[in-house]
Amino acid sequence: MPSENAARPAVLMVCDYSLKYLGGAQTAFIRQAQALAGEGVRVVVLAPDADALTSDGITTVSPPRRGTIPVLDLPLLGRARDLEPLVAATIRRHGVGAVVLHSEFAVAAAAIDVARQLGIPSLHTVHTFFWRAPAALAPFAPVVSRVHRSLTGIRNGGRFTGSHPLNNSLRTMTLRVAERADIVLSPSKHQAVALRDAGAGRVEAFSNVAQPLRVAPAPEDEPLRLLWVARFAPEKRVDVALDAMRLVVERLGEGRVHLDVAGGTHRPVPGVTFHGSVPGERVGELMDAADAALITSLGFDNQPMVALEAFAHGRPVIVSDPVLATEFGDAALGTPSPDAEGLADLIIRLAADRALLAAPREAAVAYASERVAAAHVARLLELVASV
């Protein structure tokens, strides 16, 4: 006789990105899968290299891989219509009752179409609607549109027009997948507003899942320690952090402030240590040693996973983006301007008075507490039931 848990519908989680590479979307995806499984929900993961996820309670299915799309480093899985039989068979075999997708390409489009055909809810988590590419690449916009149409089979729908042609094509790509889902999930409120304004349909602000709380005592001795963790991509603006440190050292001298950078290659910047690529456990250790984490992106990020990690460790974030600052409330300290000068000014104030971090630390813990696994899963299942 099947167990009560086995009789419950499973959740199928879908992603077009390889789970061997842990970017922000993959990290959010994996943590959500683990949270669902940890709360007793049967989880089936359909994604390239899904077997990299070995958590208990999770069944993995890896679609055949035909190559990789250059530049994007996106696994090439074929067209959506070719993937639909695999999606349908997976749903039937495992008794899937809802589909949650975290990407905008072929397997995501296939999952939405099959879910509609079988009458089960589909929820699309958008990790960034704020795609940004250099304006010099704008002539490639038609190529991006054609590739996306070819992969997904989606040939009509809303169109984003608020930026240069390539950005418009990238955001239209996300919008057209989002339009087809029953619910669009935005980890941030500000992105939810942007998606609604673009015509995405039913959009719910729904945070990514936070790690279990691991609050460490706040450092008390000098130097003031800061941590920068992100992809080394132009939109993350690591140079703003490095230029700010140069200004801080010029004004305070060495030894008052130290910045740890997880990732990247060493550069001769005073007061900065580059740790190169580090595993998640080491990031946690660096977070415990820090007073705060830096997020220097501007106009790009939705809900950076590093913010949730910082909050779970009881660390506030210092953000350059004024919109992102309001997203996190008192758990974030916004810089007076989004440039290196503004960041340096705030760092110098904090170095002079560490007590300014006390209230943001408390707010960080409160923010994470409301987004841990149990609360996240309960809300997700409510949304599924509402369709």
UniProtKB/TrEMBL annotation:
Could you confirm whether the keyword Membrane appears in this record? no
Keyword terms = Glycosyltransferase, Transferase
- Return the InterPro entries for the record: Glyco_trans_4-like_N (IPR028098), Glycosyltransferase_grp1 (IPR050194)
Q: Which domain of life is it from?
A: Bacteria
Q: Where is the Glycosyltransferase subfamily 4-like N-terminal domain?
A: 23-204
Q: Which Pfam families match?
A: Glyco_trans_1_4, Glyco_transf_4
What is the protein name for this chain? D-inositol 3-phosphate glycosyltransferase
